[in-house]
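Re: beginner question about structure tokens

> Can someone show what the tokenized structure looks like for a real chain? I only ever see the sequence side.

Sure, here's an example I had lying around. Input first:
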Amino acid sequence: MSKLEQTRSDGKRPPPVKVLSGQLRAAGIRGAAGSAEGYMIRAGRGRSLRVSLVWMQGTVLEVQLDGTTVLLMDETGTFAVQGVNNIPKGKPCLLPGKYVMVMGVTQAVSPEPVIRAVKMADLSEFAALHRQMWKLEVEELQQVLA
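And the corresponding structure tokens:
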């Protein structure tokens, strides 16, 4: 049993899992789409990891006119983030070119990942460092959890 499954059996919600958009795009569904059971991603070394609450980082490419959805891009592709208008302090992040982190619930993985935002923060001040470290952070956390 993985550490993530142990946490779930305790009745507590697992922490967000750091993922890349390409991992979600290639994910398999476990349970109903968007359910608490989430999606199975490949976590490296032939291991799988179930995710529903995710932590992602990327550059804002586009903000929809109504301000509820943004399109982000990480090093593996694009993903959409919905509900950003309901995030406290999220609005300053909503400019093309900003590097942001988002935590949220996975709503869909195909044709592109869609996340319903719970938290969003601007990481632009040290964007070069955050971009450089992100893939390593993702790999390390997934190794611990898988």
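Each token stands for a local structural state, so reading them left to right follows the chain. The helical segments are 3-9, 21-25, 127-145.
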